[in-house]
Amino acid sequence: MSKEKIRQARSGKTLSDNLICQFPGLLSRSLAACLLVALTLPPDCLAQSGRQLAVKQARPAAAAGGVYPEYRSRMGNVRWIKEQMPLKVYISHGAAIDGFIDEEVGAPIANTSNVAGWPKLVASILSTPGQFEALPIAQGFDEQHYNAALQGIGMWKQFEKEGLFTFQLTTEPDADIFVFWVNHFVDKTGMALFAGDIRGYTSKDIFPYRAILAGGKADFKPVVIMLRTTDTNGVAMPFQKMRAAAAHEFGHALGIDGHSRNPIDLMSLYYGNGTISANDASTIRYLYHSPPDLIP
Fold it and tell me: Which of 133-142, 231-240, 256-265 has the lowest mean pLDDT?
């Protein structure tokens, strides 16, 4: 699929004038709705699209140990494709998006019970003149937090030379991945969440790759990473912890969906030792040598 086709998909136009079938217009961002789209396609359409459009690529054998199965979402492999490269990454200098309130619940739209809604919120901010530029700075943000995030995300650069993916920083708000900040997370009631060592969240909309290839329409939205500026005691997040958090969340943005059960891994709930482990490396390699089922 060409970059032009990706652009057309983002604008909602069909990818081909010679479609083998008609897909529903706007694909849902949720996993459940992605499944619904797939299940409601006519059987003959699925069979034909499978024959003509499926990626003819054998799944690689797992590396000698090290690949943790939690990387895979319940819907399959989620990853970026080469036509989307290089990914554009915007690391804001402290910008916060938790000031937008959901009037129905009286809490920020960017609450932890509504993580799936964050890309829609950011897309709305970007499409409203002046809103992005007027975003406030998160309480507790320090420029060292930016530097820590820069270093953490940069850990994944080592895989570019292997041809797995490429990404670059941008100062323009037309990015594929955004990094925002928050003093502390809140739930849907607005209650502050200080307990635990959860330093960040990542939210991404995903779409069935085969449906996109076949001409389906998708309302692509940016992947959103939110990092916490304070630790469990309410003091500034230490540099090393912030760096590990940024690296961890970027691993999710790249497609590692779940958490490794091995506490030594960066992609575990415990952030490992703050660096990409051998298991993390094996897993990201396995993912990017496997055909995608869904793309962000």
Answer: 231-240
Mean pLDDT value across residues 42-58? 33
In DSSP terms, which residues pair with 227 in a beta bridge? 181, 200
- Condensed to tens digits (0 to 9), the pLDDT of residues 238-254 reads 999 999 999 999 999 99
Burial 249-279 (b: 16+ CB within 10 A, else e): bbbbbbbbbebbebeebbbbebbbebebbeb
- In this structure, whether the domain defined by 3-295 belongs to CATH 3.40.390.10 is answered with yes
Q: Which amino acid is at 121?
A: L
Token pair for 39: 């299940």
Residues with Cβ within 8 Å of residue 57, at least 6 apart in sequence: 291
Domain range summary for the chain, segments of one domain joined by +: 3-295
The contacts of residue 178 (CB under 8 Å, 6+ apart) are 90, 92, 122, 222, 223, 224, 225
- In degrees to the nearest 10, what's the CA dihedral of 211, 215, 216, 217? 140
Per the listing, tokens 């979402």 go with 73
pTM of the model: 0.80
d(CA 28, CA 10): 13
Amino acid at 134: A
What distance in Å separates the CA atoms of residue 173 and residue 185, rounded to the nearest whole number? 24
Alpha-carbon gap, residue 26 to 23, rounded angstroms: 9
Residue type, position 292, single letter:
P
